[in-house]
Amino acid sequence: MFSRRDRGLGCRASLALAFALACFGCGDDTPNGPSTGELQLVVTTAGGDVDPDGYLVSVDGDTPQRVTDGTITVGNLEPGSYEVIVTDIADNCELAGDNPLAVTVARDETTQATLAVTCAAYRGSLAVQVETTGWDVDGDGYKLLVDGVESAPLDPTASESVPVEPGEHSVALADVAPNCAVVIPRMRTVEVATLVEVSLAFRIYCAAASGPTAEQILLGGGSSGMLRVNADGTGAESLFFDPQVADYAAWSPDRNRVLVTLYDLPRDEFGGTLWTMAPDGSALDEVNAPAGVETSSWSPDGSQLVYRSRLPDVGLHVMNADGSNDVRITTGGEDWAPAWSPDGTRIIFSRVDELVNLYTVRPDGTELTPFPVAGISNVILTPRWSPDGTRIAFTAFRDGETGVWVVQDDGTGLERLTPLDLEVNPGEVAWSPTGDRLATTGGRGDDQGLWTVNSDGSDLTFRVGTLSNHVAWAK
Q1: Does 124-206 carry CATH code 3.40.50.1860?
Q2: CATH of 37-119, one of 2.30.30.240, 1.10.10.60, 2.60.40.1120, 3.50.50.60
Q3: Residue 391: Cβ within 10 Å count
Q4: Closest by alpha carbon to 198, among 167, 155, 176, 174?
Q5: How confident is residue 18, by pLDDT bands cut at 50, 70 and 90?
Q6: What is the mean pLDDT of the chain?
Q7: pTM reported for the whole predicted model
């Protein structure tokens, strides 16, 4: 049995042990069990067209938080590795670095990670379609220019989608072969809206630039019949059509046929009849056209003809190449020497009223429009388009002299190609198939006949003597 003293001693010993145990953790920095850390995510957004509803950020698959710019703090994280995942990012925005992003949280520390998002401005696009038809197609294709800068190469027949900034843009084709014409307008101005695709179609027509007849020229109007000659003046051969005479030749686009006007002798002042023939003068076939025909021209695809008729009064007519569906397209003037544009959209001709000037008209007879030439105001004859459709050549009187001139297809940039001492026959000029030369007829001293000149006015050369004067170079 314990005495009171003994019981007092035991109580004091128990209290001392409890105090020692209680004070075990006092005044000591040693960790007492697990502690937590903190993760701080700094979200930044730069660029244009920022995602307005931000992004969803989650840590190890926990409930995501939505943020655009700012800081997300996730506390009470046990030490260890975590994955930060960002979702709902707009298509025009991109997160830098890894996603998911691996981070490590340490005990009693704040771990910071930056989530940097860059957004691009929303763009529009151009859907460009190219269709090339004709004969000698441009094999290496074209270049697409957007605002004057090369954007993409294009095959002769191709479709291309090109992203562009919203706003107004100019679109054109470059590197087009000289025997190929882009249907106007050659440069298009378009307005592109954000996230909108604008469609553009370019149509190109290519003439025959090579082949056995590419360097052949036909000359009519002479008393000895029509003359066929090579462009260098060799191989001259007369084509006879007794008892008639042939004039005003016009080559078909494929060079297999030639339009000619046949006149009875003595020559009828009211015109003749329209025929087609082979380039050697054989296989004559009359076109079912009214009498009184003079000058004529083929459409670029060879399916239609335009011609001037003097009966019952002067005007231009368009019909199918087989002579069907004849429609008169001009009235009210002495219209002369029609020529179809290489893109098939317009016909240019000389009109004699108080003056002699140029006009254009659509093949259906609409949009009759004067074509003023800055620098010449009268007696402009036989306009002829260059194969690429960008220039027009013609003969004209100025300062008492006739000459061959060229202008851009808007009437500007007038340039004389022949010198003053060459007396050019009025109304006679023709382009080579590649557009680098022109042929005309005229005289200088004893040299009367066919001349060629480069399209920049250089290398004027007499080729062959002839009294035939209406010239047609194979297209």
Answers
A1: no
A2: 2.60.40.1120
A3: 18
A4: 167
A5: very low
A6: 87
A7: 0.73
